[in-house]
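# step 3/5: fold
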Amino acid sequence: MQEKYDITGMSCAACSSRVEKSVAALTGIEEVSVNLLKNSMVVTYDENTLNSGQIIDSVVKAGYGASVQTASKEGTAASAPPVDTAKKDYEVMKRRVIWSFLFTIPLFYISMGHMLHWPLPGILLGTENAGIYALTQFILVIPVAIINSKYYRMGFKTLLHRSPNMDSLIALGSGASILYGVYALYKIVFGLGHGDLAMVSQFSHDLYFEGAGTILTLITLGKTFEARAKGKTSEAINKLLNLAPKTATVIRDDVEQIVPVEELVIGDVLAVKAGESIPVDGTLLSGHGSVDESAITGESIPIDKQKTDKVIGATINKSGYFTMRADKVGDDTALAQIIRLVDEATSSKAPIAQLADKVAGVFVPIVIGIAILSAVVWLFTGATFEFALSIGISVLVVSCPCALGLATPTAIMVGTGRGAANGILIKSAESLETAHSIDTVVLDKTGTITEGKPAVTDIICREGVKEEDLLRIAYSLEKLSEHPLAQAVFTYAQNKNAIALPVTDFTQIPGGGIKGTLEQATCIAGNRKYMESEGVWDSSFESSYEALAEEGKTPLLFAKNGQLLGMIAVADVVKASSQQAILELKNLGIEVVMLTGDHKKTAEAIKRQVGVDRVIAEVLPQDKEREIRTLQENGKKVAMVGDGINDAPALVRADVGIAIGAGTDVAMESADIVLMKSDLLDVPTAIELSKATIKNIKENLFWAFFYNVIGIPVAAGCYYAAFGLKMSPMIAALAMSFSSVFVVSNALRLRFFKPKRPVGPQINQPIKETQTKESKGDEQTMKKEIKIEGMMCQHCVKHVTTALTGVAGVTDVNVNLDANNAIVNAGPDVTDDILKAAITEAGYEVTGITSC
């Protein structure tokens, strides 16, 4: 039997590990997985020997809370997303940190003001006012301790259950400071009452209330950022749910009526109009439509649907009208299965144990033992109680988790900030940590390797037919068409300044093409099947047609008065930076795999273009997720790069999910890293950044422990007898502060991180020749930027590159499709007019030329 539980009280990887171990120790447990992110636990057990009550008891005994998750009414896998809980946690943490700062700032100012000569009221200055000075700090630190009392509750609770975590370190460190501060406060009052000003002066410097307040506030600030990240991650499933249509138009008794999707049953007849989302999975009964299935299959080009064709829920009918039979509803639809996969993948992903939390289980007991042992030994040697207590407190304060706690988050904060500067949004510390060990990158094709939208790639004309004549007819017809491929032709023709002719008797043939009369001539456009049915197919186009299809392109045929004029090929073109990005990943020793829902022919064509190691085509979302799982089972560390909703399960299942910024919200929410510039070159950059950040974290942890290793023996008084060397709690706090400053300063070095390669597309340049020469031999050249209008695809880039390369004296041509420009090195004899003429002759417009 398998059950899901909500777990409360977990704050770090040590907590989730403790819960998992406690439950796993029960007789009858077959499998247990605790998810720190979702605060949940999935348990598979033998119900004949164990029950849920015993499982809950084991969690409670470990120091945490547990309850069985209640099933939703619909019974769907993701109908009760954790997003509301995560948002609630974030709001609580935000209030805590605001109120903590409200009291900590004046506390810090008052405590440090007299040392730094800041202006303070006279009532807080001087030995005679030491009681007021100490009491004021005590009054200010109490609210901070109360606001953050959870650290004490959980820290001491886990300590009592012999499973200390980071909360235990925080509780001991800040608690020791407050207790010693209270002791010092009593000493000050005692000194003032007995006229012992020396005692008053001594203990006025032994107040550590500001240290306790600062520790609690800074840790809470970090926890607030963590809660916010959890809330963002949890929204992925919520957005998947919102993708599904809320209502459907059902035909009952020949009457159309709008009903909630939940009321649909198998066999219902539904009506779907142009622009509407298809409510559930089903089969077309009548009519036709052009359906955009990119949300589910990843295919960017809409599919023509006719009678008996299958349609998928949550896809969009771009044009046409049809009726359909509901075949799958509720949990059985393709979208519901994707939601279930995302939820399961999120639940099964093991939390990455943080080094600091791993060490805490050993470090804390040792520190406590050293502190107690030191105090006891000094008491037995005849030292005063104050001296022994001072030794014990110094040991706890010098081993305060401040530096240990800052070691990872500061490096993560700077690293993620540096990533953002490079257009790489890193959503979690876990993903940044895992990325450095990635050895396999899986790429989705549509929108990741390719642009994700169709564009004109080739124009082939019959002998004797001019390109502008073919384009004029194509423009005139496609301008009136609703088909999505028509938009690619329409846009291309517009940029070529084609002239649209008036069309009469315009007709759309579902699944075939379009027909109309232009200048008293009958013109048709469409696929090969339609042309053959009209008797206008010409076998002389056979080889060109097959070649284009072999390259994964869609040839659109155009005929006039029964004679085939030519073909315009449309395809989802490869992004400018894809080839270089894949080469860079290979240079890092990473295997590159392409997964796509497209046909094998299209996938193989893309493989040849970009050079991936292997390709898997015609896969459904479940297959993508399964392929990721298979790679992981073979010992691979896998990063998945995608942009569509259909990629969400694979993004979550992967060790690191990377989403393209121009993709869907669901893909970005499901991913761990988002490439905001949608540039595939940022994938190797993110891996390099991960390596640099992890190195920095290890350095920080080393130095945090180094201070403790040096400081604890001194604080324990090991060198007092021989050298008179003793560390007071003040010096201990100072040492702890220095360790924090050192850790933060080291983390700030990450601000200077730069990728080893240029970030951004390198278009049509030989990959190995990435540097631009400023001179060639003794001949001086000038770098120039040429602004170009009219480039639409990689063929345009190729034409411009060929035109510029053909100009004598021009070297190192770099054409950028995204920036609509070209950077060249031009010799002294190459004028702007020569460059402009070469590009104009190629069919493009120059809008400006400047020297770089």
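# step 4/5: annotate
The mean pLDDT is 79.
# step 5/5: archive (pending)
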